[in-house]
Sequence to fold (454 residues):
Amino acid sequence: MFCVVIFALLNPTPYCRGFRSTGFLMLDIQLLRSQLDAVAQRLAARNFSLDVTAFQSMEDERKQLQTRTQDLQSKRNSLSKQIGALRGKGEDVSGVMAEVAGIGDELKASEERLAALQIKLNDFLSRIPNLPCDGVPVGKDETGNVEVRRWGSPREFGFEVRDHVDVGAALGLDFDTGAKLSGARFTFMRGAVASMHRAIAQLMLDMQTREHGYTECYTPYIVNPEVLYGTGQLPKFAEDMFRVERGGEGSQTQYLISTSEISLTNMVRESILKADELPLKLTAHSPCFRSEAGSYGRDTRGMIRQHQFDKVEMVRITKPEDSYDALEEMVVNAEAVLQRLELPYRVVALCTGDMGFGSAKTYDLEVWLPAQKAYREISSVSNCESFQARRMQARYKSEAGKNEFVHTLNGSGLAVGRTLVAILENYQQADGSVIVPAALRPYMGGIEVLRPSA
RNA sequence: GGAGAGGUGGCAGAGUGGUCGAAUGUACCUGACUCGAAAUCAGGCGUAGGUGCAAGCCUACCGUGGGUUCGAAUCCCACCCUCUCCGCCA
Fold:
């Protein structure tokens, strides 16, 4: 509804500019060629059925076409050189000219067929999700997720618990104005709630930078399509994005970021890093824009699921051998925020069927929402291994002097809007006021309680 | 928005149709000399793909995309980006 995908259809691989070969895929093409059935089997665990026959036939054709094309190119090159040499000596070239002319048509046709096939092959490959890491629980959907640990225990309320919509209404949380300006799933905040929203983001950013060693970043919120290709939003998930165009005509379509994972991770696209530059630990507070296509009717009440929300994001770029340690650390980095805010939560290992497109292993953090009597996602931390790095062409020069793909990880640390929701619900009092968590008070001029204004 | 300059290997910088994947300098690596280092000398040093057991051979890449040509870093067109000046603007 928001972002109908005509883009990918009209223009199969615009984000592939600069990459001519099949070498820039999501999965290692060599792996696919050599262990096709095994790969298909692992992908099946995440509900993706790989069309093995289609791939095989495209590969066979590619191989044959490429060999033939390069053969003809080689022939043309050597004949052309002969022409130059003969001309230099003032000799007759008409014989060679005739010979090379004979190659022309076939070469051109062959090149065109190969180019078309490469586009088709790339498009096919770019829609294949990452392979799940060994040890990820196998499961069809979220019911297959596995709880890893819990922290804190839900508070006992001596009164009827209200949800954040009701609690927030008197504190400046205004869905009507949001809807008036922009439609459903937009929120307008004023006063105490707006202030707390900012305080939450500040606290998170300060913790990630000062306590956990991340470098603070400020990034563009509008990015080019190839950037989204790099992190895996395109080509498959265009309908989840907001597209923007500049005033005036003829401008390239760009996209609003749906998470600053996109802009942070792509910082290293198309580059070869030095080994001693790694790991990179980046963080940013940014708005996120999501069309939420396909989620009609889900979480319609309140600000759980919004078209625009803020998030403090963590990204790490690591050497391959370090990425799984980094993943565990990032989960701890995210947990630290919930602990500081004294919000009960649990850590869940996502099963194969519930993981995101680019992830090899994901942990979700779920915060307790008393009004829903449920744990709800507030952070998601993923190791994408080399999946995004391949798409971005992000490499580093290893100690052995070889260029290898880096590993990329991302995680929310945390989602600001949902944290606000959790605070309003968990810290509410019978009189409609909300206690300000101690950790936020320095960011709110020392205020201890938010009281309904009218 | 207007006018101009420019985008070539890690960096600097040649190259305006024919052995140019690209001179030269510099950085880096290896070796020689040295007790060691510096200096000097010799050699090496881009990325990706195809093919082959391998040595190797082949193909593509000089901002991006297209065109002209037997042949393009070099000529033509479009676009992107950078810099300088003017205008506008938070």
